[in-house]
Amino acid sequence: MSSRHSKRSHGGHSSSSRSSRRTSHDSTAQLIESLITHRINTLTELCRIERVAASASEEDQLAFQEPMTLAWNHYVTSNNLLTELRGLTRNYPFSGEALDDAKWQVSNDPESNRSWNYAWLVLAKVRDAQLIDSYSQSEASKPEMWGGRTPEPEEAQQLAACFSYEWNEALEQMLRHWETPPTTTGY
């Protein structure tokens, strides 16, 4: 009896191993399909798939590479990144101009090839180029923020501080999705 049980156990393990590889391949194919069709379009979900891809076999990592890059590009260019940032900045909606400036700077930065992750590059550029400081000042000084009148410098400064605080909190929350930067160079 124990000999038969042992054979079943061994046979089941072998079958289980093949089944596990097939399931892994099917799962990889499903994730890649969801990236290609843009069914996954939130930072959290894209980061989850990025972590799955990073821990996958070398073959699967290569399969993920182009769809993952294209998914990050779509996430940024389709305004999903801006929408998520604005969802985190309900009191003082994040500046689309600041994000556009960051995208422009990334596209003109020779160092931007250090990552496949366009969203991370843009968020890091907002932080590193200190775009929040300049755009919060600009936004707070606009007469439309003040019912058509030009604000006093102290008023604009106070509003700029509110923008800066909320925008920086949102930016840091988004960047916390990556324990280490998704770069080819490790920095």
Report on the structure:
71% of the residues lie in helices and 0% in strands. It has helices at residues 2-36, 43-54, 58-77, 80-88, 96-107, 118-128, 131-140, 153-175. The chain has 187 residues and is an all-alpha fold.
Question: What are the key terms here?
Answer:
187 residues, mainly alpha, 8 helices, 71% helix, 0% strand
**Integer average pLDDT:** 87
Largest sheet: none
- Give the beta-strand count: 0
Instruction: Name the beta content range.
Output: under 5%
Continuous helix count: 8
Uncertain segments of ≥5 residues (pLDDT<50)? 1-20
> Percent helix among the residues?
over 70%
- Structural Rg: 23 Å
Which H/E pattern describes the elements?
HHHHHHHH
Shape: elongated
Distance between the termini: 59 Å
Question: What is the SS-derived class?
Answer: mainly alpha
Summarize the structure.
This protein is 71% helix and 0% strand.
Outline the secondary-structure elements.
Elements: H1 2-36, H2 43-54, H3 58-77, H4 80-88, H5 96-107, H6 118-128, H7 131-140, H8 153-175
